[in-house]
Design goal:
Blueprint: H1 3-26, H2 32-53, H3 57-75, H4 82-99, H5 103-129, H6 132-135, H7 138-146, H8 153-156, H9 162-178, H10 186-207, H11 210-230
Helix pairs in contact: 1-2, 1-4, 1-11, 2-3, 3-4, 4-5, 4-11, 5-9, 5-11, 7-9, 10-11
Length: 231
């Protein structure tokens, strides 16, 4: 994938992901604290619209970084966990691409995002496989049975099938651990990203984790470009 094209696709998906998260926040509970916080998310949507349009991108990215710092301070960290951390990573690398003075440094920043994407899958698999509860399916059963997310009763009933849970657990762990091997061939990488995107999409439908889908998708152009650059 061409470097400039990969950057542009990343900008578009990141802007859409941030707009979605901001819109969800603005449409949340109308308590006094929420209303006070809205001044952080309205300009964020405006800046994302400029990012979509490709207008003054370096300054827009810098503005989004400044807003992200204010949001971190307001919520004492990434209030939505992993998706917020990945969003900050994508935004930081994208900002560096636009402000660093040389092509080599820009490529290093964008390549770092691609490597972090690979590590996000591999380390997730490693953390799971060293945990006995993940190896025997109990951890996944707890996810279905006791999830605080709005899970349907039909999905919660999956916790009653230990063999199914064990197979699903090993499928997830196995895929995450072998994901780095997808870098060795372009077709394998495309297939791996399709599987990963399907996994995030399933989590969005089953558990309402829709932010993970879009923000991880924003990092995919970096790994596609990096694979072409290295191999």
């Amino acid at each position: 994938m061409d470097f400039d094209l990969a950057i542009r696709i990343t900008e578009i998906i990141l802007a859409l992901a941030f707009m979605q998260a901001s819109a969800e926040h603005l449409s949340g509970p109308k308590d006094r604290a929420c209303v006070k916080d809205r001044w952080l998310f309205v300009p964020r949507i405006f800046l994302c619209l400029l990012l979509l349009a490709g207008y003054q991108t370096p300054w827009v990215c810098a503005g989004l970084v400044a807003l992200s710092v204010l949001i971190l301070q307001r919520y004492q960290g990434p209030y939505n966990g992993g998706s917020d951390r990945m969003g900050l990573l994508v935004l930081s690398c994208l900002t560096l691409v636009h402000v660093l003075p040389s092509q080599l440094l820009q490529e290093l920043a964008f390549g770092y995002l691609g490597l972090q994407l690979v590590l996000s899958y591999f380390m997730s698999g490693w953390v799971k496989i060293v945990n006995a509860d993940w190896r025997n399916g109990r951890a996944l059963g707890d996810v279905f049975a006791f999830s605080a997310y709005p899970v349907s009763e039909h999905v919660r009933n999956w916790a009653r099938y230990p063999l199914l849970l064990r197979v699903m657990s090993w499928a997830v762990m196995g895929f995450e651990l072998i994901f780095p091997l997808c870098l060795l061939h372009h077709a394998a990488l495309v297939a791996g990203l399709l599987v990963a995107a399907s996994f995030h999409l399933a989590n969005a439908f089953l558990f309402g984790l829709n932010r993970f889908f879009w923000i991880w998708l924003a990092a995919y152009p970096s790994i596609l470009w990096l694979q072409d650059r290295l191999f």
